[in-house]
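Researcher: Structure prediction, please.
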Amino acid sequence: MNIAEFLMHLQARHDEAVGRADELRRQIDDLTGALAETEARLAELATARKVIAELAPTGDGGDLDPPEQATVYQAIVNAFNQHPDQAFRIRELHELLGMPTDDPAMNVTRSRPGRLTRQGFLTQPGRGRYQKRT
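Model: Predicted structure follows.
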């Protein structure tokens, strides 16, 4: 092998290494994006866990909410997770969840988004409107 062939061989190896480095950079970018999405999801799950844990029985025989109310809270949390950019009024939330829209039923629900707002899960972009905190 003469010097010219050897230099061509080295150049080919260099080009292969550059291609591999570029591919690894693309993979790092993809993994960095996936990691950011996963960390955001973990933060959402931690918030949901905190909300649900605060609604769960305290272990001293006194429930913060009866089990059926905890299920309603979970349905509300799920609705806001499914529509994170949408602000809801109580009636709209009831309609989305298939709950009765008569005044007595909605009055029972009115305190729940307020509680979720105080716990940091929701925001209140306007009077009587609630939205997932981003």
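Model: Confidence is low (pLDDT under 50) at residues 59-67.
Researcher: Thanks, that helps.
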